[in-house]
Amino acid sequence: MLDIKYIRENPEKVQDSADKKGYTVSIAELLKLDEARRSAGRQVDALREKRNAIAGQMKGGKPSPELIEQGKVVKEELASVEMEFSKIDAQYRAALGAVPNIIFDDVPEGGEEDSVEVRRWGEQKIGAIDHLDYATSRDWVDFERGAKVAGAKFYYLKGDLALLESAIIRYATDVVIAHGFTYMTVPHMVNSRIAEGSGFAPRGDAEGNEYFIEGQDLTMIGTAEAPLTGYHADEIINEERLPLLYAGLSPCYRHEAGAAGKHTRGLFRVHQFNKLEMYAFSLPEQSQEMHEKILAIEEEIWQALGVPYQVINIAAGDLGAPAAKKYDIQYWSPVDEKYRELTSCSNCTDFQARNLNIRARRKDGSVEVLHTLNGTAVSMGRSLIVILENYQNEDGTLTVPEALQPYMGGRSVL
């Protein structure tokens, strides 16, 4: 969430940013609730002080009937005011929690179609067999048995394709470790505080992609971003330790309820897949540079794999609540002859960290909310689609990208 002090001082900017992101919020109404909450809080504090003063007078002797009556009146009035405060506080917190993060000045306005290309890399080729048809012909993927066992959009990877997935993950892991990231495995479930604090939909939100555990305060993670964000919840990290860089490997579980109209064939949108996620906790002045670093690592991976792509600066209307800015890498599909989603990286500034009370202690002893960033190193099966489309041969074989060959036992062709 945003700092209410910042909202009080910049109401027009916050409202404008929310409007550009497409969020229906009223900063004016939030500020009315804020003032009502502060007023009710002052009344509560005054009555508690009065109650305590009366209680002090009652000690050491028999209180007078007048004092007893006065104490009774104050107690009743305090209970009424506390109830009113709780009501206003709930409305205030809901309104504050609905306000999205502020966008950076260089974020394009508009919706998905208004995102701006930053650069391109690699040669655009055309003509390839669809990844699902190709993988099925090689007996490398089985959606039918996946559906039998778990339902539609679940699948098995088999043989060389399963080995190729492992090779991609191991290669990307070596890359991010070389850049100073600490490799981690993470819990596959998080509680509601961590999920919502990270910016994911609460239980009961029809637009959410999350799977919830019935009867328990647990959500299956849609990305390692959630447990990595929660790793330092309620902690204060000394300035000299920052930035902290983590790389979390996990399966990801998603309803993909919001995928209507999106490309969904084969491995594009599934309910379970593996992903290696980069995550950074940084000082505020470090975060924009860190965002560019995460993007550069993503580009390094795909350049080494020889995959043509474009980098786009995502438009405001296509940003989620936590992100102040997001880059996407979209690979060139020789099948569809267009760019398709591959990876992303976001600067969430202090939005997630404030939700989960994650702070930095400066060398002078002062404490402030730090910044968080995330980025996809590799996401399976998008990564598999990319390799299947770009490295298939006319004789039906698949060339193994040179960077992956050491992780495939030296094999160059599958």
Total DSSP helices? 12
Describe the sheet with the most strands: 8 strands, mixed
Question: Which residues sit in consecutive blocks of at least 5 with pLDDT less than 50?
Answer: none
The fraction of residues assigned to DSSP E strands is: 15-25%
- Rg from C-alpha positions? 26 Å
Distance between the termini: 49 Å
Structural class: alpha+beta
Kindly describe this structure.
- The two termini are 49 Å apart.
- With 414 residues, the chain is of the alpha+beta class.
- The protein contains twelve helices and 16 strands.
- It is elongated and about 100 Å long.
- The longest helix has 33 residues, at 65-97.
- Strands 1-11-12-13-16-10-9-4 form an eight-stranded mixed sheet.
- α3 (27-58) runs antiparallel to α4 (65-97) and α5 (131-137) packs across α12 (382-390).
- A hairpin with a 5-residue loop joins β14 and β15.
- The chain has helices spanning 4-9, 11-21, 27-58, 65-97, 131-137, 143-149, 159-178, 192-197, 225-230, 287-304, 351-355, 382-390, and strands at residues 116-121, 141-142, 156-157, 182-185, 189-190, 211-212, 219-220, 236-238, 244-253, 272-282, 309-313, 325-333, 338-347, 359-361, 367-369, 371-379.
Concise account of the structure shown:
With 414 residues, the protein is of the alpha+beta class. The chain has helices at 4-9, 11-21, 27-58, 65-97, 131-137, 143-149, 159-178, 192-197, 225-230, 287-304, 351-355, 382-390; strands at residues 116-121, 141-142, 156-157, 182-185, 189-190, 211-212, 219-220, 236-238, 244-253, 272-282, 309-313, 325-333, 338-347, 359-361, 367-369, 371-379. The longest helix has 33 residues, at 65-97.
